[in-house]
Amino acid sequence: MEPKSLFLVAIGGAFGAVARYAISEWVPSEFPWGTLGVNVVGSFLLGVLIAMSIINEQVSLEILLLVGTGALGAFTTMSTFSLDVIQLIDSGKHMPAAGYMMANFALCPLSAFIGWRYIPMLFS
């Protein structure tokens, strides 16, 4: 691992984590809408980024490290999603917990697929 690569991931990760925290605070709710939103949007953006890097070769390794691994890796979060599910279940909100899990498992891959498959067509 090169120091430059580590630096890019760290800088991107710091930005992504702060953005996720800010959005979660901006969307206060008993239901974790903020986390669901960042996971769906982040999955979509990562799909676009990866597609652009593979299909059109328009994205450098540095951008992939900074934005993909760093920013979007820290922006989207499985750990917060897991904690949200546990908190919903612990507070007796079993149906919202199930809905939240299904929404994340359905919408995140779907949004990544849409970003990967269809958005690059707009630029080709």
How would you summarize the topology of this molecule?
Elements: H1 3-26, H2 33-55, H3 61-75, H4 78-90, H5 94-117
Helix pairs in contact: 1-2, 1-3, 2-3, 2-5, 4-5
Question: Concise description?
Answer:
The chain is mainly α and 124 residues long. It has one domain (3-118).
Task: Report on the architecture of this protein.
By secondary structure, the protein is an all-alpha fold. It has one domain. The longest helix has 24 residues. It is globular. The termini are far apart. The model has no long low-confidence stretch (mean pLDDT 93).
Task: Kindly list the characteristics that best describe this protein.
single chain; 124 residues; mainly alpha; 5 helices; metal ion binding; ion transport; sodium; metal-binding; FluC
Helix proportion range: over 70%
| Biggest β-sheet description | none
N-to-C SSE series? HHHHH
Class based on secondary structure composition and strand pairing = mainly alpha
State the domain count: 1
Main location: membrane
Binding site for Na(+): 73, 76
Catalytic activity: fluoride(in) = fluoride(out)
Membrane topology: Multi-pass membrane protein
